[in-house]
Amino acid sequence: MGILNFARKASVEPVNADLEAFLQGYSIEVMPRTAEKVEDFTAHLPRGTRVYIAHIDGTPIEDMVATAARLSDEGFDVMPHFPARIIRDAATLEDWVNRYQAEAGVTQGLILAGGVAEPAGDFHSSMQLLETGIFDRAGFDRLHVAGHPEGNRDIDPDGSDKMVMEALRWKQAFAERTDAKMSMATQFAFDADPIIAWANRLKDEGIEIPIHIGIAGPAKLQTLIKFAIACGVGPSLKVLQKRAMDVTKLVLPYEPTEVLSALARHKAETPDSLIEQAHIFPLGGIKTAATWVTENAGSAGTPANQS
């Protein structure tokens, strides 16, 4: 009887159907140095996963392009970052675009200002990069931009979202006058309610750009708090701080089950929401994040080498 009881407890929980649907086609982010630690991405990520490559200031473009080529060769949809404030001029931007195309077949990018305080050259905003026309001339067919559900004090030091909203209206107009397929990849947050309220507000303001919500993957609580503070995460940081006060949870890894389940439920109930899918920041490691999806979202996490 004891063995039978144990077997019942060990049985696999049914997959949350809403979560499985919401995480279909999720994207994930890597850096060249983190990608080097993964022997085979097909053992962890679903076929065709969009993989963003974060371009941190100081990373040689050669390393970025080599990582893009490797991921492309393994069958993934590669989207490198183009941070305006580390790109010296239009010639540099065009060189990067041409390298990505020639060596990795890349035709898409995340266009953002970047977290550097002082621009290295001519550009300080994503809009300036888009205005060069270089992406259009190169045939880039998908251009993503940054989103900030909890505001961005680098853009709006007064704590409002006046400048952020103005930039989003410009990007909406850009999407309407060009053929670019645009989406918004957001900063990560830990509470679904402010995210949903922000998405609803954008829609009310006439913004129609689909939202790919940034979610922090499983990681040690201390690691997440460090990254959250460094990245300027807003009110939802309180979710982590509250967890840190609970001794029973302090030593356990954080998992995004609660926030993702709430977003998945919202999407199931509101199919026309601007919230389209999830973008995972693997702060606890790429393998850890991918394994969590595989274990919690059924077919949404089936690795390419098993499909």
Key attributes of the depicted protein:
single chain, 307 residues, alpha/beta, 15% strand, disordered N terminus, oxidoreductase, oxidoreductase activity
Q: Would you give an account of this structure?
A:
The chain starts with a helix and ends in an 11-residue tail after the last helix. Strands 1-2-3-4-5-6-7-8 form an 8-stranded parallel β-barrel, surrounded by 4 helices. The protein is an alpha/beta fold and 307 residues long. Mean pLDDT is 88; it is low at 1-12. It is built from 14 helices and 8 strands. Helix 10 runs antiparallel to helix 11 (237-244). The protein has one domain: TIM Barrel. It has helices at residues 2-9, 17-22, 32-35, 61-73, 90-104, 126-131, 134-137, 162-177, 192-204, 221-230, 237-244, 247-250, 257-269, 286-296; strands at 27-30, 50-53, 77-83, 108-112, 142-147, 181-188, 211-216, 275-281. The protein is globular. GO terms for molecular function: oxidoreductase activity. Keywords: Oxidoreductase. This is Methylenetetrahydrofolate reductase (NADPH). It comes from Pseudooceanicola nitratireducens. InterPro entries: FAD-linked_oxidoreductase-like.
